[in-house]
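Subject: Interface between my chains keeps coming out wrong

I've been trying for a while to get a sensible model of this assembly. When I model each chain on its own everything looks fine, but I need the whole thing in one frame so I can look at the contacts. Pasting all components below, labels as-is. Any help appreciated, I'm running out of ideas.
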Amino acid sequence: MSAFTGVPDMGLNWLDASGDHAEIVLSTRVRLARNLQGHAFGPRARVNDREAVLGRVRQHADRVDALDGSTLFHMPDLDARSRRILLERRLASRELVGEDGADPARGTAVVVSGRAPLNVMVNEEDHLRLQSLVSGLRVRDAWTMVDRLDEDLGRELPYAFHHEFGFLTSCPTNAGTGLRASVLVHLPGLVLTKEISKVLHALGQVGLTFRGLYGEGSEVVGNFFQISNQTTLGKSEEDLVDHLDRVVRKVIQHEMDARQVLLRDAGAVTEDKIWRAYGLLRYARSLSFEELMNLLSGVRLGVSLKLLPELRVYTLNKLMIFTQPAHLEEAAGRDLSPSESDAHRAAFVRRILGSEGDVSPDDRPSSDERPPHA
Amino acid sequence: MKCDNCGEVEAVIHLTQIENNEMTACHLCEQCAAAKGLETPPAPASSFPLQEFLAQMGGEPARQDPAPVDEKCGFCGLTFQGFREAGRLGCPHCYTAFEGHLRGLLGRIHNSTQHVGKVYLPPDPTASQLERRLEGLRGQLRRAVDSEDFERAAELRDEIRSLEAETLP
Ligand SMILES: [Zn+2]
Ligand SMILES: [Zn+2]
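Reply #2:
Try treating it as a single job with all components included. I did that and got this:
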């Protein structure tokens, strides 16, 4: 199966900047962990288990509305770059694509719906990981979509379910509902005002967990945080989803308050940082992914504060995804060394900003120099 | 025990992380743990660290429910010791093979051992599975009505009616 040349935008609806608070919330994901009866899973699954599970998915997928006409990518049949592209589009996990040079195991696959922002990872830690991935803050919608897929698929394939422990998963942290809902939020205001640790601490106290978004290394890049539910057993799916939605809306309110504080107490500095970030992105000749993400964070803040009105959030989302290493190599049609990759990244950013993100030079004085009543 | 990171403050958070089948223990004060949370390397989305829960299981010398070393799942062959090391179960039957231990572990992880979400209806349900599903749906309906989600309530009512029709002789 040749991978992406035919379907360049596959699985990328979540970039389109629709959904609530899209300038602050990049995406919402809800995933359900499911296992089939009669087969070992996780570390105990052998090749025949994995192939049997994949066989049943292949056989039944087209009887499920959302997966009718879907594309199935069998990991061992893909080259390393195509697998990496699936990872960069967040359609497959590191474990599934065989990161760190490991070959992907036989029977591992991802099924990507052509009709809805849904996909199913097959033979990851659990036999099935059903996911919906949408733009902006849309926890309820994402849940409803994946719930429907789950109901349909569960009528075809016999899931492992226990009246007390719920859906049985390889890791006990996922048992019960098997549901993990997560929201990727951009919180530069809270980081710059140093309020972030308070907010993150509070999340832990209401049963939510968070982690940073990482680049190539282990540094948190771009002030993005992923917030998700910590527990999966003992609460209904609706409760888990609604709780996350409510708390994230509060976090967004704190972020907006922090931005107002920034503008009030450090308006000129903030404005300068935003314009410098834009300037570097617009003209730099070499950008590492980390640097790009940090500059994009500044520019995203500027767009959100209406300081860079010509730029669209969609353009910024696209810049984040298509500048990852495998996407750059796919566009170049060859492998790239790290320094070539940085140069290609900068060139891509200049081209996109030139065509859809050119901001008219702003020669107004910055806020501190403006007369008070102007 | 002092914090592994700053070495000054008493450690209050004990993390056990599992990566590439290696378990590492780490003891942190509250402040360093908060900072560390941001620096945890990108765990694969799936290998959610079991954190203090497995540390408790593996680390307590006097456990209330000592596991005989030969305790083993008859279906997949996973031993309880093997589960402790990897933090992953091997098949649906592991949940019954290690039920007693798992109930304790699930209770510590989730503060609950009773699933209250969707009740699964398998492809060829038995009468009792249909009855459980119906109970589950009625619970969902009550919650939908309580939260004034009338659209959802209407869907649930339809589903309950059609299932009730199936269960009637
Ligand atoms: Zn410390
Ligand atoms: Zn087992």
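Reply #3:
Confirming on my end. The first helix of chain A runs from residue 47 to 60.
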